[in-house]
Design a protein that fits this description.
The chain has 153 residues and is of the alpha+beta class. The protein folds into 2 domains: 7-47, Arc Repressor Mutant, subunit A (Orthogonal Bundle); 67-140, Lrp/AsnC effector binding domain/regulation of amino acid metabolism (RAM) domain (Alpha-Beta Plaits). Helix content is 39%, strand content 18%. The protein has helices spanning 7-18, 24-31, 35-47, 80-92, 117-130, and strands spanning 67-74, 96-101, 108-114, 135-140. It has a 4-stranded antiparallel beta sheet. Keywords: DNA-binding, Transcription, Transcription regulation. GO terms for molecular function: sequence-specific DNA binding. Pfam families: AsnC_trans_reg (PF01037), HTH_24 (PF13412).
């Protein structure tokens, strides 16, 4: 479905990014639509793929996952078999929150959430057993200055 976003759609998306639990009544009131008209807009945004899913954001410290680690990975293998193996490993390990193929000196950047350095080491051992890498270095986040899921619309 090819849908163009108008200003109301953008306002709806901005508001839903901040709180996806808002009722259609409240959302409609904030964007100047009736509840039903708002519901139809949200449904159309979902069907067009603008809204991928609705989630709850959990405080990582509250669930004992206070350490963010970025892995910088270099590989000397760039074939589809290696990439499939690496992609599967990153999908299968729940502590891996994001994995990105990069340009420049770095081949892959991986974002991890774990309890502590010992938990990171366990994850690292699990990953290197599954995937051969030329080099893997880690940086531990000392302070989180900004973390958001909101896209600038």
């Amino acid at each position: 479905m090819n849908m163009q976003l108008d200003p109301i759609d953008r306002r709806i998306l901005r508001l839903l990014q901040r709180d996806a639990s808002v009722s259609h009544d409240d959302l409609g009131a904030q964007v100047g639509l009736s509840r039903n008209a708002c519901w139809r807009r949200v449904r159309a945004l979902e069907q067009a793929g603008f809204i991928k899913k609705r989630v709850v954001l959990i405080d990582p410290d509250q669930v004992g996952l206070g350490l963010t680690v970025f892995l910088m990975i270099r590989t000397d293998r760039h074939g589809p078999d290696w990439l499939d193996q690496f992609a599967k490993a990153t999908r299968d390990i729940p502590e891996i929150l994001g994995a990105y193929r990069m340009t420049g000196d770095l081949d892959y950047l991986v974002r991890v959430r774990v309890a502590d350095v010992a938990a990171y080491d366990t994850l690292y051992q699990k990953l290197i057993r599954r995937v051969e890498m030329a080099d893997c270095s880690a940086s531990f986040v000392m302070e989180e200055l900004k973390e958001t899921t909101e896209l600038p619309l």
